[in-house]
Write a structure and sequence with these properties.
The structure is a single chain. By secondary structure, this protein is of the alpha/beta class. It has one domain: Alpha-Beta Complex (Protein-Tyrosine Phosphatase, Chain A), CATH 3.90.190. The chain is built from ten helices and seven strands. The strands form two sheets. Strands 1-3-6-4-5 form a five-stranded mixed beta sheet, with helices on one face. A two-stranded antiparallel ribbon has the order 2-7. Helix 5 packs antiparallel against helix 6 and helix 6 crosses helix 8. The longest helix is centred in the C-terminal third of the chain and has 15 residues. The chain is globular.
């Protein structure tokens, strides 16, 4: 693993203190009863001009507790595709919920191997740095993340949502890759990551309850509660230093050039829409 010694991440803004001038929360978070972190990735400023498009790409926490009303709202949004980044074990524990019986295209792409990455020769980092763990995802989850990027570059899959359990770590890495590839301003990428802090209490409560119902003795690790700007800043710095940026990582990981180019075509507009 190309670890950069990022355990000493820079001190950033406290969780939840997103820059109001760069991250527009108006209508970003969908009002769902069964998911606390389902939000639109539209409206982010592009370096050199333009914004990401509203209503095409979403990120979320787990979707297995969506209500009938939630599903109806997502049908109104026109949701076509779901990319599930969780492990098979996580899916077996919680199921897919009401969306599992719908016509929505479902793609399972686990970022983390059940063996902890040993099969790919990439054991998880021993330090407690979330940024280093996110860089590890780029190795152990290379195939899953590159496949996800290729799918997101397919216009027929939109509107699309990708999610993991909390919608913070695996989802945060994929979101950062996408936003960086299409040229979103660095601070807006960081601010998008930090927005999850506003939903962490509800997310942790839901995950803890589900594990208790399944008879699992489970303690939420401290890293699962942490949402700090410094983590995403350090991760993006690491992507630049190790790979030359998200675009270069994607191409090296096997994402077709046309798919990488299509991300900007599909997700960027010259106005706020």
């Amino acid at each position: 693993m190309k670890t950069l010694g990022l355990a000493t991440e820079r001190t950033g803004q406290r969780a939840g203190e997103a820059h109001e001038g760069r991250v527009h929360q108006r209508s970003r978070l969908l009002p769902l009863a069964g998911a606390s972190n389902f939000r639109d990735l539209g409206g982010y400023p592009i370096t050199g001009g333009g914004f990401t498009c509203w209503g095409r790409l979403f990120r979320s926490d787990t979707l297995h507790e969506l209500t009938e009303g939630d599903v109806a709202l997502l049908h109104e949004v026109g949701l076509k595709s779901i990319i599930d980044l969780r492990t098979a074990t996580e899916i077996d524990l919680s199921g897919r919920g009401l969306l599992g019986a719908g016509a929505t295209d479902y793609i399972h792409l686990s970022v983390i191997d059940e063996d902890g990455g040993e099969a790919r020769g990439a054991p998880a980092p021993m330090d407690e740095s979330l940024a280093n763990r996110y860089l590890w995802y780029l190795e152990v989850g290379r195939d899953a993340l590159s496949h996800a990027l290729s799918l997101i570059g397919d216009a027929s899959k939109h509107p699309l949502v990708f999610h993991c359990a909390a919608g913070k770590d695996r989802t945060g890495v994929l979101a950062a890759l996408i936003l960086d590839i299409v040229g979103v301003e660095r601070q807006a990428i960081v601010d998008d990551y930090v927005l999850t802090a506003n939903s962490m209490e509800a997310i942790v409560g839901r995950l803890s309850r589900k594990r208790a119902e399944g008879g699992m003795d489970y303690n939420i690790p401290a890293s699962a509660l942490t949402v700090e700007a410094a983590t995403m800043e350090a991760f993006l710095d690491g992507v630049d230093q190790c790979y030359g940026g998200a675009r270069q990582w994607a191409l090296a990981a096997g994402v077709p050039y046309d798919s990488v180019e299509a991300l900007s075509t599909l997700l960027v507009s010259t106005d706020m829409q």
